[in-house]
């Protein structure tokens, strides 16, 4: 049984899970998608190797037999959390607070194809991935022990992934995460002062300015945020107020499949298949209807390494202006829409980072 | 001129410094100290290449001529901040707040020897480095524009360093960092509730329990914190209450030189010269005399990569219990004191991380 512990000096929580030290690392020499095979015998996520993962909790299409699946969701074999255990906080003295590592950690295997990341998928396949995310989200939130559900992707070795086959993960924790709580507090404070949702106002202001907007569709905007922490950091925000990804309507997911795929395709081509993480920032399962928070996706390319200054200060040093990077990506996206050839990828190098 | 920007959703600050994109990267294939030469012709920090850095702001011994120095402090040639500029916050609309990138970024070149990290230095040399840190700290704090001074080290490529020659850095910012402010707020809250310094209480409690303590000297304790974020995270805390590293007495620095060197030597031998960062967590320059905060050093080995879950949640997944890692390092430290041979380095592997 792992533990979740609270640092008495920061109030931040840490999952202590010694079991995870045993999980394997698959580390081929290269990560370029076009150099990978479409099927890899030793990959536990490739068709034919279904027995190497725990039993599925979701399969698309549901009736698919054997290896004829399109998307699978399985428990993480090396999960840091499990549903057995006790949520009662225990205190050792008055400083050290802890609880059992209760929670869920699942893997979304996004495609049978070993070498087709979201950037290169059909729109329909991306939509299936998003529907799988949301179905698992909405199923898990029924368990009232689970207060917060983080959906995220690690793509490329520098992102912290240990397997290259396209997949993402879902972690459900029995407490609101510190990152969310901080953002929530800021949003509540804004709402109390101004009387409106911070993110709704942000969208309106960014649209008015235009200089950091990559794309606007009926339901979403894509932008490089004002205070981007790293070059090419990208946010995708639904235009309509909604605190939770779990409540995004089906039409929204359909539209999002294009928006997400095209955004990642620009990064893939423009930065030569960079390592990146994306995270779905959403409300707690108990705050889904609230007027303060507003779900969104953060995409963070891993072109630089988080170093001592960032760790010591919480302040990131970004080597690119978001207004500049937005211009580059916007141009690529417009070419993409017109079916025109992409600008030379080296056009991006002037605004690229080389380390913090 | 770079900019410092505040993210309206997190209130966190980011330095936007496009100029830094131009700095060079020296990336040899290996990082093991014993495989490096003691002098490297192309290294800007090696003796004889002094002209490749900006003019020194400090040199030990002060009278040393030419290349006969022991420690040098120079402005970072690719500094993200500079002392020209305006501290006035500017607002674009009511959401986007920014100010000029005012501040100082210096490099402490810790030794003329290209291949002698702190772990392998003489105690006397480490003391010179610590004295240089403190002299620069206390000189810079006289500038009332500078509110916070972060001293940190990036060791090894995975730590985010771009040069292998032993060095550390100092960044002075015109505002308290978000990381500090969060810790400060927690400490003030504790003080208001309990009437004592949080860290003084933490030291007493850890000493009483003993299970996470690596070493105790007259002036310092070394421990693996209760909620360690990564395996072998190590804190060095002065036992006497003191908010600021700038006020640490000379006798404290003398003792710290042994404590810091031996702690890093254990990591160096036990984890085969791992990449790591260390950070001096200290008060703002305006809070140096306060009863709430208590300066300390955090050493964070970079055995794992920060991935999507950590970025999305603020929650780290640690694969080792600090009580276990503390036991391993304590044993090594005791062997070191007795001059006995070190336990086989593979003894550490059971508790080592393999990624989050």
Keywords:
21% strand; homodimer; alpha+beta; 4-stranded antiparallel β-sheet; HIT family, subunit A; 2 domains; 10-stranded antiparallel β-sheet; 26% helix; 356 residues; globular; 6 helices; disordered C terminus
Report on the structure:
Two copies of one chain form a homodimer. Chain A has 356 residues and is of the alpha+beta class. Chain A has two domains: 3-22 and 30-178, 2-Layer Sandwich (HIT family, subunit A), CATH 3.30.428.10; 182-351, HIT-like (HIT family, subunit A), CATH 3.30.428. In chain A, 26% of the residues lie in helices and 21% in strands. Chain A has six helices and 15 strands. The two termini of chain A are 37 Å apart. Chains A and B meet through strand 2, strand 8, strand 9, helix 2 and helix 3 of A and strand 2, strand 8, strand 9, helix 2 and helix 3 of B. Strand 2 of chain A pairs parallel with strand 15 (316-318) of chain B, so a sheet runs across the interface.
Q: Would you identify the regions of chain A where 5 or more consecutive residues have pLDDT less than 50?
A: 24-30, 344-356
Shape type of chain A? globular
CATH topology of the largest domain in chain A: the name is HIT family, subunit A
Reading off the top of the CATH hierarchy, the class of the largest domain in chain A is best stated as: Alpha Beta
The named CATH superfamily of the largest domain in chain A: HIT-like
> What is the rounded distance between the termini of chain A?
37 Å
Number of structurally distinct domains of chain A: 2
Largest sheet of chain A: 10 strands, antiparallel
Main β-sheet, spatial strand arrangement of chain A: 3-4-7-9-8-13-14-12-11-10
